[in-house]
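ESCALATION

Customer reports they have been waiting on this structure for their group meeting. Please prioritize. Original submission:
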Amino acid sequence: MLAHSSVYGGAYHSVSSPYSHSNLRRLSLPSVHLRKSRLRSFSLLSSCYGQRLFGVRALAEAEVTTSDRPQYTSQPYSVNIPVGDRHILVETGHIGRQASGSVTVTDGETIVYTSVCLADTPSEPSDFFPLSVNYQERFSAAGRTSGGFFKREGRAKDHEVLTCRLIDRPLRPTMLKGFYHETQILSWVLSYDGLHSPDSLAVTAAGIAVALSEVPNTKAIAGVRIGLLGDKFIINPTTKEMEGSQLDLLLAGTDSAILMIEGYCDFLPEEKLLQAVEVGQEAVRSICNEVEALVKKCGKPKMFDAVKLPPPELYGHVEEIAGDELVKVLQIRNKIPRRKALSSLEDEVLSILTEKGYVSKDEAIGAVETIPDSFEDEDEDEEVIVDGEVDEGDVHIKPASRKPVPLLFSEVDVKLVFKEVTSKFLRRRIVEGGKRSDGRTSDEIRPINSRCGLLPRAHGSALFTRGETQSLAVVTLGDKQMAQRIDNLVDVDEVKRFYLQYSFPPSCVGEVGRMGAPSRREIGHGMLAERALESILPCEDDFPYTIRVESTITESNGSSSMASVCGGCLALQDAGVPVKCSIAGIAMGMVLDTDEFGGDGTPLILSDITGSEDASGDMDFKVAGNEDGITAFQMDIKVGGITLPIMKKALLQARDGRKHILAEMLECSPPPVKHLSKYAPLIHVMKVKPDKVNVIIGSGGKKVKSIIEETGVEAIEAQDDGVVKITARDMSSLEKSKAIISTLTMVPTIGDIYRNCEIKSIAPYGAFVEIAPGREGLCHISELSSNWLAKTEDAFKVGDRVDVKLIEINEKGQLRLSRRALLPDPDPEKPKENTSSQKTIDKASTPKKVVKVSKDGILVENNDEQLKDKTILLDSAKAGPITNKNRVKRSSSKPVTSASEKDGGSLVNGEAKVG
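Update from on-call: job pushed to the front of the queue and completed.
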C-alpha cells in the first residue's frame, strides 16, 4: 500500500516515511495478487529538475504496523466555533475523504466546502511555493442557474479571483521553505443565504483544511470581516449590516500575529483602523485556538521529511565568492542595469563553483533516481505481482534504484542560495548604511512628476511618474449603457457605474511576456485602486455618468497600484468629474529583524518601496487616502506576522508620505482642466410623472426608438419613477429630444389653445388633430366649422393645419377639441344655442395656454398678458442620420432628486468643483 498519498482508503497510519532526501533505500514488499486488468502496458516516468528525483512517498507494511505513532482514521467530526455574536460550524470527515484535508464551514445557511490536495512527487525547486487556489460560487447555492448558453459556471469572475487572492496571501507565509510538492486548494460555495458572506468563511475554511492536511505549515490561520456601524465594530457582519458600514475590513492571521489585511473605508482615521484590526485579531485568535484543538484530534501527520533545503555550507561559498561584488552591484541606482549586473554575477558564481568541482552540469545529486517500469504478464486475463512491486490499482510500478552520484551542490541550489544572499546583503545595506539601493533614506519618497491632458481625444488623461514607476491613466465618460454588469449569486443584476481596469504589460519591466486576459494580480491591483478612488466620486444624482478609468503601467519598479491611484485621481479631475478631494497612495515596506544586521532590533519601516525592497523585505503595506483619513489599504506579510505597534508605526509613516505626494500632485503641469471635454457626451436629466413613462416608451419601445432616430441622440433612459435621462453628443439633438419628451408628457388643461396643428386622419364623425408629437384629440364635425358640414372631407383633408381649443377631457383621458370656438361669431346679435357643447365652451372661455406650431414643426412660445398664454418650446423637426436605433432603456433605479423643479430638467455640463 502507498502512504502519504492523496488517496486514502480506510485507516491512515501516521508514521514517518523511511525515504528521506539524504538517505533513500529500497524496500521489499510482500507478494500481492491483483485483480484482472485490461491494461496492456503502462510506463510511469517521474522527473523533476532535469534527471533529479527527490524520493517516493512509500512505506513498508512492516514498518506501518509496528509504528508507535498514533493512527489516523477519517472519522466524521464537527465543532461549533464562536465568532462574534454567533457560531460557525466546522465539519470534517463527511465530504471529500480522499483529499489530504477537507472541511465544510457553515454560517447561517451559507456553506463553504474546501479541500486540499498535494502531488505525490515534488516539482522543480523554486523560491516560490507551488500553491494554487481556486474558489467558485455555484449558482445552485442560491437556487439559480447560469445565464449563459451552456448553463454552467465558466471562467472565474473578478470577485472570485479576488477571493482566491484573499485565501492565498495569508497561507503562503506559513508554508515551509523547501517543500516542493504542488499543493492545490479548491473551495466551493455550496449554499448561500444572501446574508452571510462566503469570502471570509472561505479564508477560514482553507486555513482549517491546510491545518488538517499533510502540508507542512507553521500555524493554523483564520479570517474574519470587520464592519463599523456608528462606533461599534461588528465581526462577520451580514450583508444588510454592511450596507450602512463605514468600514469593510477583511483580516487573516494566526493566534499570535497578523498576516494579511485588506479593506476599504470612508476616510477613516488611522487610530480607528487600528482599533478595528485589534478587534479582528482577537476574533482570529479565538478561532485559531479552536482549530489547533481540532487538529490534535483529526489532523494528519505533516510531511516534514519532504522538506529539502540547500546545504548550509553553500551559503558560505556563495558569500565568499560574490560578497564584495554584491556590495558594489546593490549600489547601482537604476533597476535594469542592477538586474543585469546581478544576473551576470550569478552566472559567475555558478561558473566558479563548477570549475572547483562543487557543481556538476547534470542534476543527479545526492538522490536516488527511482525509475518505475511497467510490468506486464503475457497473459492478458491474469496478472500476478511479484515481490518488490507496489499495488496502485490498475497501475503496477516496479521500483528500480540507481547509485547516487557523490556530488555536493546542484545548479538550482546555487541559484536559490544566491537570491537569498542577495536579499541578505540588501537588508544589511539598508539597516547598517541607512541608505537604500537608490540612495534614499527609509522615509524618503522618490521624485514625482505628473502631467494631464496629454491625450487630446480622451475625456481625461494623466501621466503619473514616481521614480521608475509610471502609470498612464485614462478616463472615459458614458451613460448607463457603459456600466459594468455583474452576474452574482443574488438574483439581482449588479451594475457598477464606476470601475478601474489595471494592466501590467511585460514591456513595463523591459521584458517579453504573454499578453491576453488579465492576470489575477492585475485584477487585484485594479480593484484596490478602484475602491480607493470610489470614496471621492460624486453621487449619481449630481453626476449621472458612468466612469471608466484605465491604468496602464508603462514603467514599474514597485508601487504600481498606488501610482494608479494617484494617476487616476488626476485623470478624473482632467475629465471634469467633480471629485470631493484629491487622494494619493503609497506602499510601505519593512525589515523586521534589524538586530541581525547590527540594528537595535526595532523593525525598520520603509516608505515608497521599490521592487527589490518588496521582494527582499518582510512586508508590503499599501495605503491610499488623504491627510485626514484612509480610503483603501492592503497588507501582505512575508514572515510569521506583525503586531499592532508595528502596524501603527507603518500607518503613521504612510500618512506623512501621502501628504508629500499630494503636495507634489498639486504641482502637476499642465494641470487638470476640471471641466467636461468637448468630446464627452451630454446627459440631460428630467423628471416626468411616473404614469407618463409608458407614453415615452410606446408599444414595444417604438416611440422612444422613433425619438432617437428623429433627433439623433445617443440614448434615452426612462425609469419607472419618472426620471428620464437623455444622452447626446451635441446640444442641438439634446434640445430636440427634450422638447419632444416635454410635449409627450405634458398635462393638457381645458381651455388651452393649440395653433397650426396638423390633421392626422379623417373620420365620418370628425377629424383627429395632433396638438403635440404623439398627442392627438378629436375635433367633432360639429366643432370644425361655424357652418353646418355634411362630411368632414367637404372642408378638410389630411395634412391641413388648424387652430383648436381643448374643451373637454373625458374619464379615459381622451381629448375633445373645437375649431369653432376660435372662429369669429358670424351673427353676434343671434343668441347662442343652449347645447351641451356650447356650455362646455363657455366654461373654458378664457384660454389658459396657447401653443403655436409653425409649418416647419417648431413651436414658439409667446406670452400674452390679456389671454395669460403660456408657450411651450417644441422641436419636432427631423434630425440627421439615425444613430443607435436600438438603445432603448428602462430601469427601476432610484429617482434622481437633483432634477430642476423650474424646467423639469438639469443639464450636466460646465465646471467641475474639486473640494
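Sent to customer with the following note: The longest helix spans residues 270-298.
Escalation resolved.
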